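Quiz preparation item.
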C-alpha cells in the first residue's frame, strides 16, 4: 500500500497533469491530503523536529523538480516488467510452487542459513546454479541487491582499487561504498579509459577488481566482456559480473552473456538474479568454492539475514528448468525487441546503444518522460518514467522491457502510441 500521499486511484498521469497545472509553484501549495502520520502533519508533537522538517522539505523539493515517486499499480499492457519470459504467470511454475508449499511441510525457514535456516532444497538449488554458471559453487542471497552489496563489501577492502562502470546498478555502488575501497568510475563501456586507468595503477600492489553488469539495466546494451576479461588478465585484476538482466534471456539455454562469450571460467564471481526472467526472488553468487566459503563467513547480508523459505528454492529450480528450455520464447523476444528498436529509431527516437530487450526511450527532462508515460497509459500501456537519480541528469527516459508475451501486433500499436506520446507532449509544451 502506498504510505503517503497517494490517494486511491491516483496515478502517475494525474500526478503529471496536476503538477503541470500547478506549474513550478507546487512547492508552495499546501497538500490537502496530508495524513496525520505524515512527517510534517503529525498532531502528536507541539514542535516539529529537525528530522521531520527536513523530510518535509525534501519531499517538497522532489515534487517541485518532478522527481517525486509513489507506489502504484498502473493498468495496461505491462512494459516495465522484468518478467522477460512471461514465467510469473506460467501455470507450470505456479503448480510447482503450490506443490512445493503443500509437500514441503514448512513455509518459514526459521533463521539464517548458519542457524536454523539451511535446507537441502537450497543446497540443491546452489548446485544447479553453479552448473549453470560453470563454477564450482554458488551461494543464494535473498535479493540481488543483497547479493551485490554483500559480495562487494566482503571482497574489497580499504586500499584496494575497484574499477566500476558508470552505469552500474545501485546495489554494486552501495557494496563498493561499504567496502571503503578506492573507486575509479570509468565512463560507461569505455574500454580505452579502463585500460589507461589499469595501466596508470599497474605498479600498485593492492588488489584490483573490475565490476560491471553484463546487460545494463537502464541502457539495454552489453559490456564488452571478452575485452574486459582480457584487460583484467593483462593487468592482474579480477572481474565481478552482474548478470541480472541476461540470465534466462541471453546465452546458450539462457545461461547468460558470460557463457555466451566463453569467459565464465575467468570471473571471480558472477551474480545471477532470480527476480527477473526467472520470476522468483533472490540471487546466486556463482564462484569458486573458496569464494563461496569466504562469503558464508564474511558476507554480512548473507550471515545476518533470515534464510528464504525452502519452497522458494523449489520454485527457483522449476523456473530455471523451464527457462533453460524456452529457446522459442527467447527467439520470439529477440525478434519483437528488434522490431521495436528498429521502428523507434526509424522515427527518430533516441534509444542510446540499446541492443536488447531493454529499450530506453530517451526523453531528456523528467517532465517530458512523465508526459510520455501518461500518454502511453492513455493508450493502454503501463510504462514508468525513469528519472534522476536512477539515471543521470538530462537523461530521463521511458524504460520499456520487452517480454516474450508481447506479440508483434502489440509492438506495432506501441510504436504508434510512442509517436502519439511525442506529438501530444510537444503540442502541450
Ligand atoms: C543490474 C541489477 N543488479 C541487481 C539488481 C537487484 O536485484 P533484486 O531486484 O533481486 O534485488 C537489479 C534490480 O533491479 C539490477 O537491475
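Solution:
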Amino acid at each position: 500500500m502506498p504510505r503517503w500521499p497517494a490517494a486511491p486511484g491516483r496515478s502517475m498521469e494525474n500526478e503529471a497533469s496536476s503538477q503541470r497545472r500547478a506549474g513550478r509553484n507546487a512547492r508552495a501549495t499546501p497538500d490537502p491530503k496530508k495524513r496525520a502520520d505524515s512527517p510534517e502533519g503529525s498532531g502528536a508533537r507541539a514542535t516539529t523536529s529537525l528530522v521531520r522538517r527536513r523530510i518535509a522539505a525534501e519531499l517538497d523539493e522532489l515534487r517541485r523538480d518532478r522527481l517525486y515517486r509513489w507506489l502504484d499499480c498502473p493498468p495496461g499492457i505491462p512494459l516495465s516488467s522484468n518478467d522477460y519470459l512471461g514465467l510469473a504467470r506460467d501455470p507450470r511454475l505456479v503448480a510447482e510452487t503450490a506443490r512445493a508449499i503443500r509437500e514441503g511441510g514448512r513455509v518459514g525457514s526459521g533463521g539464517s542459513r548458519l542457524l536454523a535456516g539451511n535446507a537441502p532444497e537450497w543446497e540443491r538449488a546452489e548446485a544447479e546454479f553453479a552448473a549453470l554458471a560453470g563454477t564450482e559453487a554458488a551461494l543464494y542471497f535473498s535479493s540481488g541487491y543483497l547479493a551485490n552489496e554483500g559480495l562487494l563489501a566482503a571482497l574489497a577492502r580499504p586500499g584496494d582499487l575497484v574499477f566500476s562502470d558508470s552505469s552500474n546498478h545501485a546495489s554494486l555502488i552501495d557494496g563498493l561504498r561499504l567496502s571503503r575501497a578506492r573507486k575509479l568510475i570509468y565512463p560507461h563501456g569505455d574500454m580505452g579509459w579502463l585500460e589507461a586507468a589499469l595501466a596508470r595503477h599497474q605498479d600498485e600492489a593492492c588488489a584490483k577488481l573490475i565490476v560491471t553488469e553484463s546487460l545494463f539495466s537502464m541502457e539495454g546494451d552489453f559490456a564488452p566482456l571478452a575485452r574486459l576479461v582480457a584487460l583484467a588478465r593483462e593487468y592482474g585484476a579480477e572481474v565481478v559480473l552482474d548478470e541480472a538482466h541476461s540470465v534466462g534471456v541471453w546465452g546458450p539455454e539462457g545461461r547468460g552473456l558470460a557463457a555466451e562469450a566463453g569467459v565464465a571460467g575467468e570471473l571471480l564471481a558472477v551474480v545471477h538474479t532470480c527476480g527477473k526472467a526467472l520470476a522468483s526472488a533472490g540471487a546466486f553468487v556463482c564462484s569458486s568454492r573458496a569464494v563461496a566459503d569466504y562469503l558464508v563467513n564474511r558476507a554480512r547480508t548473507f550471515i545476518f539475514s533470515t534464510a528464504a523459505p525452502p519452497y522458494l528454492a523449489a520454485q527457483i529450480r522449476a523456473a530455471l528448468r523451464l527457462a533453460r528450455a524456452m529457446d522459442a520464447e527467447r527467439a520470439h523476444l529477440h525478434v519483437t525487441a528488434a522490431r521495436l528498436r528498429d521502428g523507434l529509431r526509424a522515427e527518430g527516437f533516441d534509444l542510446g546503444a540499446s541492443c536488447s530487450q531493454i529499450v530506453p526511450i530517451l526523453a531528456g527532462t523528467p517532465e517530458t518522460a512523465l508526459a510520455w508515460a501518461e500518454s502511453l497509459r492513455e493508450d493502454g500501456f503501463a510504462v514508468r518514467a525513469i528519472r534522476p537519480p536512477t539515471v543521470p541528469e538530462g537523461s530521463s527516459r521511458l524504460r520499456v522491457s520487452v517480454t516474450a508475451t508481447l506479440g508483434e501486433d502489440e509492438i506495432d500499436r506501441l510504436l504508434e502510441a510512442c509517436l502519439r506520446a511525442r506529438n501530444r507532449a510537444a503540442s502541450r509544451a
